[in-house]
Amino acid sequence: MSLIVQKYGGSSVADAESIKRVAKRIVETRKAGNEVVVAVSAMGDSTDELLDLAHQVTPIPAPRELDMLLTAGERISMALLAMSIRSMGHDARSFTGSQAGMITDARHGQARIVDVTPGRVRSALDEGAIAIVAGFQGFNRGTGDITTLGRGGSDTTAVALAAALHADVCEIYTDVDGIFTADPRVVPRAHKIDRISSEEMLELAANGAKVLYIRAVEYARRHGVTLHVRSSFNNNEGTIVFNETSAASVALGFAAATGGAGIPNRGTITGPVTLTSGSLTAGTPTAGTSTSGTPTAGSTEQNSEKSVEEPLIAGVAADLSEAKITVVGVPDIPGKAAQIFNIVAKTGANIDMIVQNVSAAATGLTDISFTLPKSDGQTVLQTLTASQPDVGFSSLQYDDQIGKLALVGAGMRTNAGVSAKLFTALYEAGINIEMISTSEIRISVVTRADTVNTALRVVHTAFGLDADTDAVVHGGTGR
Predict the structure, then answer these.
(1) Percent residues over pLDDT 90 in the chain
(2) Distance separating alpha carbons of residues 94 and 79, to the nearest angstrom
(3) Is residue 275 domain-shared with residue 423, that is, in the same domain?
(4) Strand 35-40 and strand 354-356: pairing?
(5) Are residues 67 and 175 in the same domain?
(6) For residue 216, what is the domain's CATH number?
(7) Are residues 169 and 103 in the same domain?
(8) In a 3-state reduction of DSSP, which class is residue 448?
(9) What is the CA radius of gyration of the chain?
(10) Please, how many CA atoms are within 13 Å of residue 370, restricted to the half-sphere of its CB?
(11) Tens digit of each residue's pLDDT (9 = 90 or more) over 331-378
């Protein structure tokens, strides 16, 4: 018997009919002989509606009370889903985050999981029931308060449960057919990726790809949880997010180059592996068999290396949620950058890209620019302004009309000319680059907000990622 954790987003449980469709899918997975745990989001846009209500009552809602309010959405959907499953003749029990043992720190609105003790969930499974857990929420032992995990928290809940329960796979259900080379709402010709490494997925998630949230991907990678991103509107196979060194990845057919101990060879299969309604089954090893049934050339070292290097670019992502702050006229002497970013760190803001200009010889001054979430922008501006006499900079500039584009692919490590192709494509489209940041497998650029979607489409085409037909988006916003 396999243990499968499934997560359903708001668009998948948007109304009563959607909840009944999801319940049917869950029951089918249970009938196939699997234990099933479900993490569920609030229905449709109900979290946003609750936030609107809170801000109508007060401009600055108290964080503790806001968490109490927002967790109501998931409690509604978990109870309705359990009712629907029970109406189909199967036992289902719903649990809040605290009942499911999601222990967090005390930070409201952005709590982090510190422990998972799913004793009641495990007991329900042992008694033959399907466990339905409210996503996005937890409980702090010290204060005794309910907390929320922030945007994408239901993904994190599902992954945390999968890790704690040693699940065989964690299925993330959404309203698209898997992970695409770009957001199909912006790039209609984006194509679905069959499998992607957690390293590449981390970079895409960090740079605006919303099909999976970065905290969930980080948690899955750290704890060896294999993710399977699928659509709740059909039975298509979706996308596997595999951990390069995890045993679960090997079980899914990503054979390790060193007999199971090294980096898996993408596309090299040790035996037929089937993913049917979330169940994992591995058969007798058959050389040259792929997960899709397409014959491969075998499992020689040469073919293994080729399969690893084939996908030069995994995808392109865009992010409109960031702003840029430029600290103008900073004395170009040792310690000033450290002083500035220590001040920023005290605000709790997460800095992304940083650029320091060459100092002017005549003045000995330089400019330092960095990007950060728009939600932190005003707090950081106020904090830096208050510290201006100590730091000695001239002024601050704030720009919230920027967009970030990121090109991600493990093949960048061994292929020359990626940067040249990216910058040429943007130049030919008349798109100006304001900032550049790189890692081993990513190149990020900052452009104007009103050009970033055009840039996304242009770069997607330039790297040969366009599919022959438009992608299907079944509804909602991708969550």
Answers:
(1) 73
(2) 6
(3) no
(4) unpaired
(5) yes
(6) 3.40.1160.10
(7) yes
(8) strand
(9) 24
(10) 19
(11) 999 999 999 999 999 998 999 999 998 888 788 999 999 999 998 999
C-alpha to C-alpha distances, 185 to 94, 156, 223, 442, 475, nearest whole angstrom: 33, 24, 32, 22, 10
**Residue recorded with tokens 């997010």:** 241
Kindly report, residue by residue over 224-276, the tens digit of the pLDDT.
999 999 988 888 899 999 987 654 444 443 333 323 333 333 332 223 333 33
Domain assignment present for 307? no
User: What CA–CA distance (Å, rounded) separates 12 from 252?
Assistant: 26
* Whether 76 and 211 share a structural domain: yes
Can you state the angle between helices 336-345 and 374-386, rounded to 10 degrees? 120
Q: Distance between CA atoms of 352 and 61, rounded to whole angstroms? A: 28
Quickly tell me which residue has 């180059």 as its tokens. Answer: 257
Strand residues in 374-441 grouped as ranges (E): 395-399, 402-408, 435-439
Q: Cα 188 to chain center, whole Å?
A: 20
Give the pairing of strands 169-174 and 137-139. Answer: unpaired
Read off the tokens for 223. Answer: 């704890």
Whether 291 has a pLDDT exceeding 60, the answer reads no
* CA 388 from centroid of its chain's CA atoms: 37
Domain that holds residue 455: 314-462
**How many domains does one find in the chain?**
2
Lowest-confidence region among 61-70, 98-107, 258-267, 463-472: 258-267
Inter-CA distances, 122 with 41, 119, 139, 202, 226, Å = 21, 5, 18, 30, 20
Do 272 and 334 lie in one domain? The reply is no
More confident residue, 124 or 281: 124
- Based on the fold, state whether residues 219 and 346 are members of the same structural domain: no
For residue 99, with 0-12 CB atoms within 10 Å meaning exposed, 13-18 middle and 19 or more buried, which class applies?
A: middle
For every residue of 54-123, DSSP letters joined together read HHHH-SS--HHHHHHHHHHHHHHHHHHHHHHHHHTT--EEEE-TTTTTEEE-S-SSS--EEEE--HHHHH
Q: Is residue 386 located within the same domain as residue 320?
A: yes
Distance between CA atoms of residues 1 and 32, nearest Å: 9
Beta carbons within 8 Å of 189's beta carbon, 6+ residues apart: 460, 461, 466, 467, 468, 469, 470, 471
Q: Report which DSSP code applies to 413.
A: G
Distance from C-alpha of 413 to C-alpha of 407, rounded to nearest angstrom? 13
